[in-house]
């Protein structure tokens, strides 16, 4: 399962970085509008978030990049240990999605000083905070983890054997 999770993580990080390179190239044209409508509910834009999810702590402090990169590195290390021990494919893929997404955002923080976000979903004038492929992978990975946890009910003897039940 380790190889599967690592493959997913690598694919997510590569797709995330490729998408950000494409967005930077697209928005390097000074004649281009700062917001490019794609669909009635989706715009492309270029923004750099030096904070965390949903723009929290996005105060352009120089220490944010280092602090949030170190925190993400610790989470990635913990997830790698967990990934080395998982026994189900769904959980391996879920952890891989989270590792890949976190890695993609750490790469941005180190190289760009903040995370590049470009997907702007909206309903009328209400806009969801801009996000990217890495953020999406993290969310899908967490959702898959939760789903796997709900669906993988073990019978009582098996749960006792693994220490999941208290006497």
Q: Could you explain the architecture of this structure?
A:
- This protein has helices at 2-26, 62-83, 89-112, 133-151, 156-161, and strands at 35-39, 42-49, 115-123, 126-127.
- It is 57% helix and 14% strand.
- The model has no long low-confidence stretch (mean pLDDT 87).
- The longest helix is centred in the N-terminal third of the chain and has 25 residues, at 2-26.
- It contains five helices and four strands; from the N terminus they run H-E-E-H-H-E-E-H-H.
- The chain is globular.
- The chain has one domain.
- The protein has a four-stranded antiparallel beta sheet.
- Helix 1 (2-26) packs parallel to helix 3 (89-112) and helix 2 runs antiparallel to helix 3.
- The protein is α+β, with helices and mostly antiparallel strands and 167 residues long.
């Amino acid at each position: 399962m380790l190889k599967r999770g690592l493959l997913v993580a690598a694919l997510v990080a590569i797709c995330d970085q490729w998408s950000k390179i494409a967005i930077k190239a697209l928005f390097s044209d000074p004649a281009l509008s700062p917001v490019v409508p794609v669909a009635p509910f989706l715009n492309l834009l270029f923004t750099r978030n030096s904070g965390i999810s949903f723009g929290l702590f996005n105060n352009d402090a120089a220490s944010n990049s280092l602090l949030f990169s170190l925190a993400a590195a610790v989470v990635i290390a913990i997830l790698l240990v967990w990934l080395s021990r998982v026994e189900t494919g769904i959980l391996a893929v879920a952890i891989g999605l989270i590792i890949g997404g976190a890695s993609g955002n750490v790469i941005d923080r180190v190289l760009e000083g903040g995370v590049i976000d470009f997907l702007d979903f909206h309903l009328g004038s209400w806009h969801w905070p801009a996000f990217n492929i890495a953020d999406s992978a993290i969310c899908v990975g967490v959702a898959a983890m939760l789903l796997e946890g709900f669906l993988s009910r073990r019978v009582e003897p098996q749960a006792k054997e693994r220490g999941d039940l208290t006497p």
